[in-house]
Amino acid sequence: MSDAASDAFERAFAITIGHEGDAWDRTYGDPGNWTKGAVGCGELKGSKFGISAAVYSDLDIQHLTSDDAKAIYRRDYWARVQGEALPPPLAILVFDAAVNNGLSRAVRWLQAACEVDEDGVIGPSTLAAVKARRGVDICTEFMALRLTFMAGLPTWRLFGLGWARRLCALPWQSLTLTEAS
After folding, report:
1. Which of 16, 61, 88, 124 has the fewest CB atoms below 10 angstroms from its CB?
2. 101-139: per-residue pLDDT in tens?
3. Tens digit of each residue's pLDDT (9 = 90 or more) over 24-69
């Protein structure tokens, strides 16, 4: 991995962790805190650094370290959204959505914003479409799809204000990836 790519990941990680937080959370009403992904189903293991029991049911969530979280984020999110191949502002938006809303959903939003087949995999046709379109148009459509989805969740009443702040901050924060590139 080149220094520039590694630096982009480090900055994207810092932004996303800034939204996710580093405290262990066992909020009862958060489906992500349960090993089966639904309130009251499975074990209430919680989340930490945005790593949830719903996705990582076998991990000892409470004792995760920042380095553990960084390794998971790099392997399971950054690499799989092709963070190094996307323009930096778009990379942070897709990466953050993958962490917060799920990898497949984030990739499909990107593909919808690029008007390509929504197969859930960022491949050559998705990357070509990203290069062929105006970045601001892709970013705007991506964020609109994400906002619409999140506002429709039954947990919006519990978490909506924080999510809205996150979604409003991300486009501005994504500019820091461009400025430092």
Report:
1. 124
2. 999 999 999 999 999 999 999 999 999 999 999 999 999
3. 999 998 999 999 999 999 999 999 999 999 999 999 999 999 999 9
Strands (E), 24-94: 47-48, 51-52
SS3 65: coil
Contacts of 113 (CB under 8 A, 6+ apart): 137, 138, 139, 141, 142, 145
Residue type, 19: H
Residue 129, both tokens: 């479409």
pTM for the whole structure: 0.91
Neighbours of 71 (CB within 10 A): 11
* Local structure of 132: helix, strand or coil: helix
Under 8 Å between Cβ of 47 and 69: no
Closest to 72 measured CA to CA, from 54, 50, 94: 50
Task: For 10-41, give the DSSP string.
Answer: HHHHHHHHHHH-SS-B--TT-GGGBTTSSTTS
| Residues making up the chain, counted from first to last | 181
Report the distance separating Cα 160 and Cα 133, nearest Å: 31
Chain mean position to CA 162: 15
